[in-house]
Automatic annotation (TrEMBL):
Name of the top EC class for this enzyme: transferase
GO biological process, alphabetically ordered: GMP salvage; guanine salvage; hypoxanthine metabolic process; IMP salvage; purine ribonucleoside salvage
Reactions performed catalytically: GMP + diphosphate = guanine + 5-phospho-alpha-D-ribose 1-diphosphate; IMP + diphosphate = hypoxanthine + 5-phospho-alpha-D-ribose 1-diphosphate
Cofactor(s) the protein needs: Mg(2+)
Record's protein name: Hypoxanthine phosphoribosyltransferase
Main location class: cytoplasm
Span of domain Phosphoribosyltransferase: 12-160
Role of this protein: Purine salvage pathway enzyme that catalyzes the transfer of the ribosyl-5-phosphate group from 5-phospho-alpha-D-ribose 1-diphosphate (PRPP) to the N9 position of the 6-oxopurines hypoxanthine and guanine to form the corresponding ribonucleotides IMP (inosine 5'-monophosphate) and GMP (guanosine 5'-monophosphate), with the release of PPi.
Cross-referenced InterPro entries: HGPRT (IPR050408), Hxn_phspho_trans (IPR005904), PRTase-like (IPR029057), PRTase_dom (IPR000836)
Lineage per the UniProt record: Bacteria, Bacillati, Bacillota, Bacilli, Lactobacillales
UniProt family annotation: Belongs to the purine/pyrimidine phosphoribosyltransferase family.
Localization annotation: Cytoplasm
UniProt keyword terms in alphabetical order: Cytoplasm, Glycosyltransferase, Magnesium, Metal-binding, Nucleotide-binding, Purine salvage, Transferase
UniProt pathway: Purine metabolism; IMP biosynthesis via salvage pathway; IMP from hypoxanthine: step 1/1; Purine metabolism; GMP biosynthesis via salvage pathway; GMP from guanine: step 1/1
Amino acid sequence: MLEQDIKKILISQDEITEAAKKLGAQLTKDYEGKNPILVGILKGSIPFMAELVKYIDTHLEMDFMMVSSYHGGTVSSGVINIKQDVTQDVKGRHIVFVEDIIDTGQTLKSLRDMFTAREAASVKIVTMLDKPEGRTVEIEADYTCFTIPNEFVVGYGLDYNENYRNLPYVGVLKEEVYSK
Protein backbone atom coordinates (compact mmCIF):
# COMPACT_ATOMS: atom_id res chain seq x y z
CA MET A 1 0.00 0.00 0.00
CA LEU A 2 2.73 2.51 0.92
CA GLU A 3 4.76 1.47 -2.12
CA GLN A 4 2.27 3.22 -4.41
CA ASP A 5 3.60 6.56 -3.11
CA ILE A 6 7.24 5.69 -3.83
CA LYS A 7 8.81 6.88 -7.08
CA LYS A 8 11.83 4.56 -6.74
CA ILE A 9 13.80 2.63 -4.17
CA LEU A 10 17.07 4.46 -3.57
CA ILE A 11 18.71 2.14 -1.01
CA SER A 12 17.58 -1.41 -0.24
CA GLN A 13 17.31 -3.01 3.18
CA ASP A 14 20.22 -5.33 2.31
CA GLU A 15 22.41 -2.36 1.36
CA ILE A 16 21.60 -0.66 4.67
CA THR A 17 22.44 -3.84 6.62
CA GLU A 18 25.79 -4.20 4.85
CA ALA A 19 26.66 -0.55 5.46
CA ALA A 20 25.72 -0.91 9.16
CA LYS A 21 28.00 -3.96 9.47
CA LYS A 22 30.97 -2.08 7.99
CA LEU A 23 30.30 1.01 10.08
CA GLY A 24 29.82 -1.08 13.23
CA ALA A 25 33.23 -2.69 12.69
CA GLN A 26 34.83 0.76 12.28
CA LEU A 27 33.12 2.13 15.40
CA THR A 28 34.24 -0.96 17.33
CA LYS A 29 37.86 -0.10 16.49
CA ASP A 30 37.51 3.63 17.04
CA TYR A 31 35.72 3.38 20.41
CA GLU A 32 37.26 0.28 21.98
CA GLY A 33 37.70 0.95 25.69
CA LYS A 34 36.06 4.40 25.49
CA ASN A 35 32.44 3.46 26.45
CA PRO A 36 30.83 6.09 24.17
CA ILE A 37 27.27 7.32 24.48
CA LEU A 38 25.41 6.83 21.21
CA VAL A 39 22.74 9.52 21.07
CA GLY A 40 19.92 8.69 18.69
CA ILE A 41 18.03 11.64 17.29
CA LEU A 42 14.36 10.70 17.56
CA LYS A 43 12.37 9.57 15.79
CA GLY A 44 14.11 8.98 12.50
CA SER A 45 17.29 7.37 13.80
CA ILE A 46 15.56 4.41 15.50
CA PRO A 47 15.65 1.80 12.67
CA PHE A 48 19.21 2.68 11.64
CA MET A 49 20.52 2.87 15.21
CA ALA A 50 18.91 -0.48 16.04
CA GLU A 51 20.63 -2.02 13.03
CA LEU A 52 23.98 -0.35 13.71
CA VAL A 53 24.41 -1.25 17.39
CA LYS A 54 24.11 -4.96 16.58
CA TYR A 55 27.52 -4.69 14.90
CA ILE A 56 29.40 -2.60 17.48
CA ASP A 57 31.41 -5.01 19.60
CA THR A 58 32.54 -2.80 22.47
CA HIS A 59 30.89 -1.31 25.54
CA LEU A 60 28.59 1.59 24.79
CA GLU A 61 25.62 3.37 26.27
CA MET A 62 22.58 4.63 24.42
CA ASP A 63 20.54 7.75 24.97
CA PHE A 64 18.09 9.73 22.86
CA MET A 65 17.13 13.27 22.03
CA MET A 66 14.01 14.51 20.32
CA VAL A 67 14.87 17.47 18.15
CA SER A 68 12.81 18.97 15.39
CA SER A 69 13.40 21.48 12.63
CA TYR A 70 10.91 20.32 9.99
CA HIS A 71 7.61 20.81 11.83
CA GLY A 72 5.59 18.78 9.30
CA GLY A 73 7.03 20.17 6.07
CA THR A 74 9.56 19.00 3.52
CA VAL A 75 12.12 21.75 4.18
CA SER A 76 13.87 22.52 7.47
CA SER A 77 12.51 25.62 9.16
CA GLY A 78 15.97 26.44 10.52
CA VAL A 79 14.51 26.68 14.03
CA ILE A 80 15.85 23.91 16.28
CA ASN A 81 13.41 22.78 18.94
CA ILE A 82 14.71 20.38 21.63
CA LYS A 83 11.72 18.42 22.87
CA GLN A 84 13.71 15.82 24.85
CA ASP A 85 17.30 16.09 26.04
CA VAL A 86 19.70 13.28 27.01
CA THR A 87 19.25 11.85 30.48
CA GLN A 88 22.91 11.72 31.53
CA ASP A 89 25.80 14.07 32.13
CA VAL A 90 28.00 14.18 29.02
CA LYS A 91 30.98 15.99 30.57
CA GLY A 92 34.14 14.04 29.76
CA ARG A 93 32.24 11.44 27.70
CA HIS A 94 32.62 10.46 24.05
CA ILE A 95 29.38 11.35 22.26
CA VAL A 96 28.35 9.78 18.96
CA PHE A 97 25.22 11.31 17.44
CA VAL A 98 23.32 8.81 15.30
CA GLU A 99 21.11 10.40 12.67
CA ASP A 100 19.02 9.14 9.77
CA ILE A 101 19.98 12.01 7.44
CA ILE A 102 22.03 15.19 7.32
CA ASP A 103 20.29 17.66 5.05
CA THR A 104 20.69 21.34 5.96
CA GLY A 105 23.03 20.38 8.81
CA GLN A 106 21.53 22.98 11.14
CA THR A 107 20.27 20.50 13.74
CA LEU A 108 23.54 18.61 14.05
CA LYS A 109 25.65 21.76 14.04
CA SER A 110 23.55 23.10 16.93
CA LEU A 111 23.81 19.80 18.81
CA ARG A 112 27.56 19.49 18.24
CA ASP A 113 28.09 23.03 19.52
CA MET A 114 25.82 22.37 22.53
CA PHE A 115 27.65 19.17 23.53
CA THR A 116 31.04 20.78 23.03
CA ALA A 117 29.91 23.50 25.45
CA ARG A 118 28.81 20.76 27.85
CA GLU A 119 32.46 19.62 27.80
CA ALA A 120 32.05 16.24 26.11
CA ALA A 121 35.43 14.55 25.55
CA SER A 122 34.57 14.24 21.85
CA VAL A 123 31.53 14.74 19.64
CA LYS A 124 31.21 12.71 16.44
CA ILE A 125 28.37 12.32 13.95
CA VAL A 126 27.19 9.10 12.33
CA THR A 127 24.57 9.32 9.61
CA MET A 128 22.87 6.78 7.43
CA LEU A 129 22.31 9.36 4.67
CA ASP A 130 24.14 12.52 3.71
CA LYS A 131 22.51 15.02 1.35
CA PRO A 132 25.29 17.60 0.79
CA GLU A 133 23.25 19.62 -1.75
CA GLY A 134 20.84 20.54 1.05
CA ARG A 135 23.54 21.97 3.33
CA THR A 136 23.05 25.51 4.64
CA VAL A 137 25.78 25.39 7.33
CA GLU A 138 29.34 24.06 7.45
CA ILE A 139 29.19 20.55 8.90
CA GLU A 140 30.26 17.10 7.82
CA ALA A 141 29.51 13.70 9.31
CA ASP A 142 32.42 11.77 10.73
CA TYR A 143 30.86 8.52 9.49
CA THR A 144 28.48 8.28 6.51
CA CYS A 145 26.86 5.21 4.98
CA PHE A 146 25.36 6.74 1.82
CA THR A 147 25.55 10.08 0.01
CA ILE A 148 22.29 10.79 -1.78
CA PRO A 149 21.01 13.30 -4.34
CA ASN A 150 18.77 16.22 -3.41
CA GLU A 151 15.49 14.29 -3.49
CA PHE A 152 12.81 13.93 -0.82
CA VAL A 153 13.35 10.49 0.72
CA VAL A 154 11.33 8.43 3.17
CA GLY A 155 11.58 5.02 4.77
CA TYR A 156 13.87 3.32 7.25
CA GLY A 157 13.02 5.99 9.82
CA LEU A 158 12.63 8.96 7.49
CA ASP A 159 9.14 10.39 7.31
CA TYR A 160 6.77 12.75 5.63
CA ASN A 161 4.18 14.01 8.15
CA GLU A 162 5.10 11.08 10.46
CA ASN A 163 4.32 8.50 7.77
CA TYR A 164 6.56 6.10 5.80
CA ARG A 165 9.08 5.57 8.64
CA ASN A 166 8.22 1.86 8.60
CA LEU A 167 9.30 1.18 5.01
CA PRO A 168 12.18 -1.34 5.07
CA TYR A 169 14.21 0.68 2.54
CA VAL A 170 14.91 4.31 1.60
CA GLY A 171 12.76 5.49 -1.27
CA VAL A 172 12.06 8.70 -3.14
CA LEU A 173 8.58 9.98 -2.37
CA LYS A 174 6.45 10.89 -5.38
CA GLU A 175 6.18 14.66 -5.62
CA GLU A 176 2.38 14.59 -5.95
CA VAL A 177 2.18 13.09 -2.43
CA TYR A 178 3.79 16.09 -0.71
CA SER A 179 2.83 18.89 -3.10
CA LYS A 180 -0.91 18.59 -2.44
